[in-house]
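# step 3/5: fold
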Amino acid sequence: MAVLDKAPADRGPAAAGITAGRVILGLVLSVISAIALFVMWGGNGSLWPLVFVGFVPMYVAAYRVLPPRLAAVPFAIAAFGYWLAMAMDGGGVLSVIVVYGIATVMALIWLGLGVFERRFTERTRYKWFIVQLPLLWVGLEILFGTNPFIGSNFWIAYRTAYIPAFVQPVSVVSTPALSFVLVMINAIIALWILRWIDSRWPRLAERPIPARTLKWSSIIAVGVVVIWVAGSLLINASVNSGLGRSVRVASVQTGITNTTSSGELGSGGEQGTPEDNARNTALQAQLTEMTMDASRQGAELIVWPEEELNYDVREGDKGAWVGELAKRANAVIVAGFQPEAPDLASPNLAGVWFPDGTLQSPVYAKKHAVIVEGEAFTPGTLSPVYETEFGDLGVMICFDHDFPDGPTRTTVAAGANIMAVPALDPYTISELRWQSLVFRAIENRVPLVKTDIGFDSAIINANGEVQTRSAVEDPAGETVLLVADVNIGPQGAPFTQTGGYPFALLVVLGVIARYARQVYLVRRGTATPEPADI
């Protein structure tokens, strides 16, 4: 009995022309894709428009230049470039060996997955071509998007954070849906190029692309893109017309001289020592000066970084000065604190002080520990909403905002229409982390005010527009005060209610259908393709 995926591959007219030059060209094209997928990341060039075409050279190499037995190699090379960028952006907490190890492992995974792609495509006469890679790529995004190591930072859709007016439908169908559209755009461009190659050099094709398949694939892909763009423009206009009152907010990025660094006490040493007391005195003076500066500029909400205070502000009068400062500033202050330091298993908390000086209860407890940085605390379970004069305030801490079905969604579902985000990031990701903030804002239609310790603070409006941000690549950090106006709400995004699960289910069903079809073809036991529809 013949087995489908055991290739007639190298015996056709295309195989006859395989030369060393073609193999080299195929590898070069694969590397071009890897480079494109690398430099589109914020920390590696920010050439984000390449997200629309980055896979195209890989497709050409896999389907027309390399022999079928090497068709999986371009997938592996392209994946290596993409994941190397991802791992390097996290280089502040990862060794060089780990960085290249992650990229290599992902390349090997895609080498295994890619083995089936060309064979299935040719047997099915390219009918699945424009959805094959999108289904697989997005399926893996959905499957691993809740991992506790890097969260959803690897999602390809985040590269379009620069154009929030294009992103708006994620508030309905979820961010992975945009990832699907982006990879599909690559696929339809590649399909047209492959068809053109077939017309110029027909001997390169083991199985030429049927005209009817090209026609219907184009109609479907263009239709999806038109619907996406039109929907985005309509949603953007609706969100802009529904924005609530304007609120001036501030992000107090103190730098790392007097503050914590990756969960440690920086230069302060253990609590209660003369060095620690000196550190806290200097930090208090700095926070007071910067907070009052924000107040003079009209800020009603002022956010400090994660773990900014290395003591429990609820004990005795330790936090009394923060309440007094909130009174003087006539503003809401959100501050991160760690009651038992320096211990990465200690609770990671954020307090909210109202303009009357009172610390609100309950305080917010971080829900997602950064395992690669050694955090091991018990995650929080509450999503408190604080009713202020300017709106209903929610809080989350740092890594929490990397999870779409996480604190942003649950807190907005509980009523919040503005979010404060104390954070403490490595300097290496200063050009990366704001991107997921844009998507959390758009998914739930609320503004976010993120304050990092020294590198990547950002103020994002409810429509996903970046009002202002910092991007400091110096490991010494930088003192920055960001002040900007955002609009409350308008909330009401379908994503807030569904969490994106309907689209995730469609992807899962699509992946099952795709591989069920392949299994059926294998079990049918024929090496011939499906009937032509030229």
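# step 4/5: annotate
Residues 245-489 form a domain with the Nitrilase/N-carbamoyl-D-aminoacid amidohydrolase fold (CATH 3.60.110.10).
# step 5/5: archive (pending)
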